[in-house]
Amino acid sequence: MKKVSASKVIIYLILIIWAVTTIFPFLWILNNSFKPSAEVLRSSFLLPQEFTLENYQTAFGRLNVLNAYKQSFLISGTVTVGVMVLSSMMAFGLSRYRFKGKKFVHSLIVASLMFPVFATIIPVYRMIVSWGLLSKNIAVILPQIAGNLSFATIVMLGFIQSISVEMEEAAYMEGANVFRVFGQIIVPLCRPSLATVAIFSFLWSYNDLFVQKVMMRDNTKYPVCRLLEEISSQYGTDFGLMAASVTIIVVPVMIVYILLQKNIIKGLTAGAIKG
Amino acid sequence: MKKKVLSLLMAGTMAASLLAGCGGGKDDAAANAGDAADAGAAGTEVQGEAANEEAPKNPVTLKTVSMFGGTDPNKVAYEAINASLKEEYDYITIEDNSQTSDEEWKAAVNADFSVGNEPDVIQFFTDATADTIVATDKLVTINEIWAEYPEYAGDTLESALAAAANTDGVMRAVPTTGYWEGLFCNKDLFDQYNLELPTDWESLTTAITTFKENGVIPIACSLNNVPHYWIEFLMLYSAGVDEYTSVPETAPEGWVKGLSLFQTLREMGAFPEDTDTVDDAYIGQLFRDKKAAMQLDGSWYSGNIEDVENTVVIAFPGVPEQKAEAGSLVGGISSGFYITRKAWDDPDKRDAAVKFVMAHTCQAGVQQYWEAGGAVAQAAVEVTPVEGASPFAQSIAEYTSAASAIVAPTDSRIGDAYKTLVSEIVKVSTGAMTAEDAINEALALIK
Amino acid sequence: MLYRKKWPLLIFLVPGLLFMLMFLYLPFVENIKNSFYDMNAVVKMPGTEWDFIGLENYKKLFTDTDVRVALINSLKMMIVTVIFEVGIAFVLAVLVSQIKRGQQLFRTVFFFPVVISATAIGLMFSLFYNYNGGMLNQILAYFGKDPVLWLSPERAFTMLAIPTVWSYIGFYFVILLTGLSDIPDDIYEAAAIDGCGKFKQVFYITLPMMKTVFFTSVTLAVTGALKVFDLPWVIAPNGAPQGLTHFLGTYMYQQTYGLNNYDYGSTLAVLIVILGVAVSRCIGFLTEEKDEKSKRK
User: Fold this and answer.
1) CB of A75 closer than 8 Å to CB of A141
2) Which of C160, C162, C167 has its CA nearest to residue C73?
3) Residues of B in contact with C236 (CB under 8 A)
């Protein structure tokens, strides 16, 4: 009994140490967002000598942050839903059907993981312009869905492959067609991986400054990262303002993450039952 | 014959409205369209007025792009001028997409021009950076505009207009302000160690060694990020104006000698310990925090200087066996407002685009930009000096007015190849690559 | 039986593949084409022509010493990410699955660095490493030691690998934990009854049962390492110091957007993709066996 609790202590100790390294940056950024820039450079690890909201006032005063939040949620929300739908369909098709060229399709998907976004952005940009979609939300949404799709499909594929087909066969015997099997059996079972896919699609879309930068040229439609980059590109040395900007960027994704996090846990239990 | 009369008439209309546009910005407010027309030599103006009343203008939406974005002090002037322009001409709507220029943005502008998505008016570079968009033939030349609007760019100094010509020698852009590069010094640090401000290579090296011994960084410079200013001055002073401004096939002796000095300076300990990894913003902070004594930078940096009592700008001290005359400075005018063919070919937009550019480049407009930038840049029109200049601003005035030669930097001549040269400077400074190889590698990229 | 009719397959596969084709493959093919031309601008400007230069850019790959540096660094980074990123994530996942109280808290907290954009993390680490008043040197100064140049040529790679690995451990942690929870508890219970200790369980049950998840993680880690860009770029741009920390991703970015060598940048992008496919193929071989099994099922 004693031995068990000793190992538990070590486990907790390791986990807590790691947790400290992951929480620390947040506190550091938050702490420094309340300081003037010079103080960040001088003593970034102490509490602010004089607590100031000036950085936030500057950020909110200069920029329409609320509208940028709305834009970001519209764009990244759509990307997330699009990726979830398309990737689960593809993964289902790939795991359940035997067909010629399956290996090829699979390797296409894996290969597209390799595409750095800056390698494809220029031709994509030209397409978007020729379709007259520049500066519209869809101009960011389409390439981002494509960019996140391969990762999502691979995650979904790993999961769906591990689901045994017996339940599906049974449903088929009872007269369900493929689409009902997909919608009513596979999708609910996939909840943990769908939540994983959702979190990453949202995060990557939200933090993906590069595509936002190229596609959104109208400054009334900037998403959050693009808007705040405007500050950092000019006020690169104003570390206090930068810290405030990072906080403004991070807070909403944290909220989304914590909300979806609950979903993951529910999903995980569902996954455990199915085993 | 008819055509001529018509264009005269149009010119008249323009003249009247332009004067109004410009007057609006001036302090002695009263100057409105009517007054200006009355004051002017009657004739055409009166007809112009009449024409104005006869044909109310169609609503025009101008798509405009400028590099005055982010927190650029010019942005305030730019938007103020736009606002007063909109107020004056209620039929003009301005759809502006200004951004601070960076590589992605430049690439996007290129892409816009290539797919026919270019704006109506664009404020952009005039040097080799603009070559690719100039090649599309979508920018209207000033001569063509003059044929219909003789008043166009009327306030702009002839020399400024010529300086803003593209690399093919054709004038297309109307400039607002130019820039200079010079050596910023923390005079208080020099005083503290009983040093004179450097005037030649010898006094420069004395200053460097003294500062180094006392734990002060002699020169704030990030070799990895922005060694540009040092490249320019070392090459200019080592090669002399003629060789410096040439576009050679292979590395000229003077260029090689100039860049080799990077290694000399590095070995002397002139640069910060972490010069290989830090960026320009950090370097600027070192200088302003008085941790570094000197920083070679451009006029745009002046706005960041807080200690205007103890900071001065001086001429580049020099190099051993220097070829350029003391007081030679790197600077010029490298951006301006262009009207695109798209706007010019649209009868409604043509007039609005001309009004727009005039509002930004007339005396009142430029004065606004000049003051927004701290009244230290080179203005493209005659500007009215501001009162109560600080020692810092005075030193700049002295420096720029005493210039023995004003030369445009190398990148204005060799374009993108310059970036390759910049990227090799760290290796040149450590001796891992010879200056000659670095220059030849860059020159090989020029077609 | 259910899946004998093939036509629904089209409905499942085509929309997704179409997306990839339009926004990844066609642009990439254009990229390959561009690598054979001397591009003077991002896109072909009306009135200008690009010269066909054949394999010139590919020849340059072999003589360019920076490519060699970038290649070696990227391969090193791959190994480091597989061993440390996936390794530490697995250890953490196993540890978290062993405990009951606080599990949810750790799960939430470990993921934090993934949420912050790489740019922000990069900025933070550069403030740690600063020679002049950075955190590490502030600590050294407190103990009366001389400041250290953290990003010196000898140390730079390690100093870049640390934040890169650290920031994505939470990512693999979540994936591996999802995989762990798929292993039914009764297997462990049965093993425990048979006298199999916790440590042995990990080796004989957990590891083999998680092969697919590991395959996914390692593939992602390797391709991620090949594309690594934001973090090194923010901390040590342009391969600082002295061009020693180039990675394929950062070098490609520098060539394309820093030096405007668009065609050479395209060539490097082709190299990255080819390498990525080759490496993930290698990993694929290791799990081939497993694939066969699942098909039979």
Assistant:
1) yes
2) C160
3) 277
The complex scores an ipTM of: 0.81
The answer as to whether C87 is a domain residue is yes
Residue C113 lies in a domain: yes
Does any domain span residue C219? yes
Distance CA A72, CA A136 (A): 12
Q: Select from B178, B225, B159, B244 the least CA-distant residue to B400.
A: B178
C199 phi/psi in degrees, rounded to 5: -65, -45
Q: Are B320 and C161 in contact (CB under 8 A)?
A: no
Domains B19-30+56-170+334-383 and B179-331+404-446 equal at CATH topology level: yes
State which residues form the domain around C97. Answer: 52-296
Answer whether A15 sits within 8 Å of C99, measured CB to CB: yes
d(CA B64, CA A219): 13
Q: Are B64 and B120 in contact (CB under 8 A)?
A: yes
CATH tag, B179-331+404-446: 3.40.190.10
Number of structural domains found in chain C: 1
Smallest Cα–Cα separation from B284: which of B233, B235, B236, B217? B217
Fold category of B19-30+56-170+334-383 in CATH: D-Maltodextrin-Binding Protein; domain 2 (3.40.190)
Burial of A127 (0-12, 13-18, 19+ CB in 10 A): middle
pLDDT tens, position by position, B328-349? 999 989 899 999 999 999 988 9
In a domain, residue C189? The reply is: yes
At C202-259, the pLDDT tens digits run 778 888 888 777 887 888 888 888 888 878 888 888 888 888 999 998 898 888 877 8
Helix locations, B116-141, DSSP H? 131-134
State the residue range of the domain holding A138.
65-274
Question: Does A259 reach chain C within 8 Å, measured CB to CB?
Answer: no
Which residues of chain A neighbour C104 with C-beta distances below 8 Å? 261, 265
- For chain B, the chains sharing at least 3 beta-carbon pairs closer than 8 angstroms are A, C
Q: Is A251 on the interface with C (CB under 8 A)?
A: no
Q: CA angle at residue A205 from A199 to A208, to 5 degrees? A: 130
Residue C25 C-alpha, separation from nearest chain B C-alpha, in angstroms? 20
Kindly report the number of other CB atoms within 10 A of residue B75's CB atom. 18
Helices (H) and strands (E) in chain C, counts: 17, 2
Inside any domain, residue A88 = yes
| Contacts with A120 from chain B: Cβ below 8 Å | none
Q: Is C19 helix (H, G, I), strand (E, B) or coil?
A: helix
What residues form DSSP beta bridges with B63? B95
A220 touching B (Cβ < 8 Å)? no
* CATH number of the domain within which A226 lies: 1.10.3720.10
Q: How far apart are CA C85 and CA C79, in angstroms?
A: 10
User: Which residues of chain C have a CB within 8 Å of the CB of B280?
Assistant: none
Q: Give the span between the Cα atoms of C123 and A47, in whole angstroms.
A: 19
A54 close to B (CB below 8 A): no
* A236/B281 Cβ within 8 A: yes
Report chain C (297 residues): mean pLDDT per 10 consecutive residues: 80 93 91 88 76 92 92 94 94 88 86 81 81 81 88 92 92 83 78 80 80 81 84 83 89 84 89 84 67 42
Check B97 against A233: CB less than 8 A apart. no
Tell me how many residue pairs between chain A and chain B have CB atoms under 8 A apart. Answer: 48
pTM, whole model, 2 decimals? 0.82
Q: What is residue B189's three-state secondary structure?
A: helix
Q: Distance between CA atoms of C232 and C230, rounded to whole angstroms?
A: 6
Instruction: At B335, give phi and psi (nearest 5°).
Output: -150, 160
Q: From residue A113, how far is each of A200, B342, C285 by CA, in Å? A: 14, 41, 18
Give the CATH number of the domain where residue C103 resides. 1.10.3720.10
